[in-house]
Amino acid sequence: MHEFFIVQNVIKTVEDLMVNHPKKKVVKAVLLIGRFSGVEPELLQTALDFFKQGSVLKDAEIVIEIEDLRMRCQKCQQEFSKEKWDLTCPFCGSFETEVLSGEEMLLKSLELVDED
């Protein structure tokens, strides 16, 4: 259940950002979750629903986007996606691959409006 701690950190990050925008409110927040980040989107949503009440995100729509595992082969330089954890290149079979994305979790964007 590390998702609860993640959500608390997301809220703290948004609160810190909102210090520079005192007459605005958050109407939308987009979180990007890598498929292999170790974060369970359903648990994250549950934690968000619980903790956002009484926070700067209380009235915000929260969108969770899932990022596939994107990799690049060091040998043939092809880029590709994977749906399961498999480091082999589908083009040349090399294990010399690097992860480009799909392991991250980040606050991608915030949409703010003037507070009435």
From TrEMBL:
Q: Which residues bind Zn(2+)?
A: 73, 76, 89, 92
Does the keyword Metal-binding belong to this entry?
yes
UniProt-recorded Gene Ontology molecular function terms: nickel cation binding; zinc ion binding
Q: Which GO terms describe its biological process?
A: protein maturation
Q: Report residues binding Ni(2+).
A: 2
Keyword line? Metal-binding, Nickel, Zinc
Name the InterPro entries on file: Hydgase_Ni_incorp_HypA/HybF_CS, HypA/HybF
Q: HAMAP family, per this entry?
A: HypA_HybF
Family label: Belongs to the HypA/HybF family.
Role summary: Involved in the maturation of [NiFe] hydrogenases. Required for nickel insertion into the metal center of the hydrogenase.
Q: Which NCBIfam families match?
A: hypA
Record-given protein name:
Hydrogenase maturation factor HypA
Its taxonomic path starts at:
Bacteria, Pseudomonadati, Thermodesulfobacteriota, Thermodesulfobacteria, Thermodesulfobacteriales
* Name of the coding gene: hypA
